[in-house]
Amino acid sequence: MPELPEVQALVEFLDRRTRGHVVTAASLGQISALKTYAPPLSALVGGTVAGVARHGKWIDLEVVGPESLHLVLHLSRGGWVRWHDTVPTTPVRPRAGGAGGGRPTLALRVALDDGSGFDVTEAGTRKRLAVHVVHDAAEVPQVATLGVEPLSPAFTVERFAALLAARNQQVKGLLRDQGTIAGIGNAYSDEILHAARTSPFRLTKTYRDALDDVAALHRATVEVLTEAVAAASGKPAAELKDAKRRGMRVHGRTGEPCPGWDGTPCGDVVHEVSFADSSLQYCPTCQTGGTPLADRRMSRLLR
Length: 303
Known about the structure:
Layout: H1 4-18, E1 23-28, E2 48-55, E3 58-64, E4 68-74, E5 79-84, E6 105-112, E7 117-122, E8 130-134, H2 141-144, H3 157-165, H4 171-176, H5 186-196, H6 211-232, H7 237-247, E9 271-274, E10 279-282, H8 284-287
Helix pairs in contact: 1-6, 1-7, 3-6, 5-6
């Protein structure tokens, strides 16, 4: 799933290529992807792209015509943006979704007045990609309820401490909660927790009297995301997925040697905990005092 760094890079990529251009076509390929009906998708045609912004993991393309509209996209797990210097002329035929075989399903195509454009596609059988056409991005409930942006000035150590103290849950779950902190998902929460040298199962209540630990986790969050944003910036959309994989220290690297939280190999290997439809990766030596986590429901590790 694209997370804050990749979505930010996609936003910058699209902004450079679409700003100031007129939308000449907006064609729906996957009926289930469109979550709104008024204004219609066709209302974007004839409008000029005023800019592209990011809200958490959401892409917000503003189109100004007779009225200001926003094409707001969430790529979910299997979605992606594919740029065309020359947009295909093959008619887009709406379909209800479904398995899609081994190829990504075309969900949306946007064409511009210089002949370029982009496709929004979705791979996999579970169709969760979301397309909204609204007058204001805040009309999308999931955007309106987003938490603090972790790379914004509002994300202070004090604010983070208050978020940790507000409830008692596993810290990995809090990092991934979009209503608490916007933009972090499964991959970067693994990376942040590894950098902070803490267990993904540590309970947030244990941070209430551990201000040094709060500061360390805050620092890891900002540093990991800042580094990832810098690494993704300027890359074309087609290269972002591979760049993300290469930048991971523990996520997706089960069984590989742990590079160490400070860049010095610790001598252990990356372990995994599997769930129904996802998994997390961590290093026992760096994060859990050398003890492997057997299962999230059985583990009582808080360090």
